[in-house]
Design a protein that fits this description.
heterodimer; A: alpha+beta; 2 helices; B: mainly alpha
Amino acid sequence: MTQYLMSVYYVEGEDQPADDVVQEMYADVGALNQKMQDEGAWVFGGGLHTPDMTTVVRADDGEIITTDGPFPEAKEQIGGFWVIEAKDMDEALDWASQATVACRGPVEVRPFQDEPEG
Amino acid sequence: MPDAPAIAAIFKEESGRAVATLARRFGDIDLAEEAVQEAFVEAVRRWPEAGVPPSPAGWIITTARNRAIDRIRRESLRDERQTEATRMLEPDEPEEIHAVEDDQLRLIFTCCHPSLAVSAQVALTLRLIGGLQTEEIARAFLVSETTMAQRLVRAKKKIKAANIPYRIPGDAELPNRIRPVLAVIYLVYNEGHVATSGGDLGRPDVSADAIRLARLLAGLMPDEPEVVGLLALLLLTEARRPARTGPSGDLVRLADQDRGLWDTQQIHEGQELVRSCLRRNHPGPYQVQAAIAAVHADAADAKDTKWDQIVALYDQLLVFAPTPIVSLNRAIAVAETGAVSNALQEIEGLELTEYYLFHAARGDFLERLGRNEDAAEAYALARALTVNEAEQDHLRRLEQRALQNAP
C-alpha cells in the first residue's frame, strides 16, 4: 500500500462558483469522503481557508520569523486535500478521478515517501 | 559462432521479454534491467565458443533470473529482506510463453503510463521493451547520453515512488490507456521517418524499431483494431521510403516518386492488415490513416490515385481528429481532385502559420492557380520554418521554379 496526497487546486482571482454549485460540491465531496472511509482508502482530508488566511513561520539563523502568508507566489493555490491509502497508482488515480469531479477542480496526486509502519 | 554484434542483435530482439518477466517477478525494473545486462555480458563471454543456445530467450531469462536472485541473496545477508528473498528463491515454475507475453504487455502499459511525461514514455519503451541501449535512444532523439540516462533514471524513480503498477488495464480503461502506447510508437516512427533536424531525411533504424514495437503490440493485442491499424499505417508508410529520397538525399514528393521502388512486400502486408481491421467495423484514427495510405498504394501511378476516396477518408478522420493538420491534408486531396481554388479557400484561416507544410501546400495551390509570385513567397516562408536540410533544398527548388514562371 502507498499513501498519496491528493491536492485540489484552484486559480486565485478566478470567478467563484455560484452558491447552489458550491452546495452541490459540498454534497458530492461529502459522499466521496464517506465512500473513501467505507472502502478503507481514507486517511485524512479537508477543505482549507483561502491563502490570505495563512501565516508563514521560518527559522533564520536561529531566529524564528513569522510573516503574513501565503508562501508560494503562484496564482495556483491548494483549496483542500485528501491523504489516501491505495494499492497502487492506478487505484489512487481512480480516487483522483472521482475527486476532481466532486470538487470541480484539478487534483494533483503525489506519493508519500515511506509506507506507513505496520 | 556468433560475434559480438550478432549477440547484441539477439539481445535487442530478446531482452524485452526477459526484462518484462523479471520486472513482474521481482517487482523492480532496475533489478530486472541490471540482471539482463549481466546476462548479456555473460553471453558475450560464452556464446562465441559455446554457440547460441537453442532458445536464446529462455537462456537470457534463466541467466538473468539467477543473477537477480544472487543479488537479492547477497543483499539479504546484509539486511532483513531475508523473508522476501526466501519467497522468491522457491523452486521455479516453468515460464510459460503466454505468461511472458502478458508480462511484456504489462510493462508496455507501465512505460506508457499517463503519469509519465511523453518524453519519458518514449525513452522507457525503447529501453525496456525495444531493448535499445541508452546511447542509441539518445542518438535517435538528438540529446546527450547523460541527458537520456537522467531521463530514464527519473522515470524509473517515479514508477517506483508513485507505485505505478505492472498491470494490463481493465476493459473500461483500455481505450484511454492504449492511446498513449500507440502515440509513443507513432512518435518513435516519425522521428525515424523525418528527422526533426540534421542533414538526413530520416533514420531508418529508428523507424525499424517502431515497426518492431508495433508488430509486437499487434501480436499481443490482435483484437484491438487500432493496434493493427497502426502497424498497417507504419508498414504502408515505410514501404515508400526507398522512393522518398533522390540520389543526392533530396526529398521526392509522393506524386513524383518512382512507385517501382516501393516495397511490395510491406505494401501487401499493410493492405491485408487494413482490410482485416476495417472488417471489424470499429474504425479509429490509425485505421483511417492506414486506409488512406492503402489507397495511395493501390495507384500504380500518382495520376491514378482515387482522390475522391481519399477526401472521403479524410472526412472520416476529421471526426476522430478534428485538427488543422487533418484539414490541411484533406485540402491537399481536394486540390488533387481538381478543385484547387476550393482547396485554397479551405486552408485560409487554418491556425498553422508556424507549420512549414502549410506554407508548402499553400504555395503549391497558388502555383497551380498561376499566382507564381505569391507561391514563391509561400515556399520561402515554408523553407524558413523547417530545419531539415533536405526539405529546405526541395523548397528552394520550388521557390526558384515559381519565380522563373512569374510574369
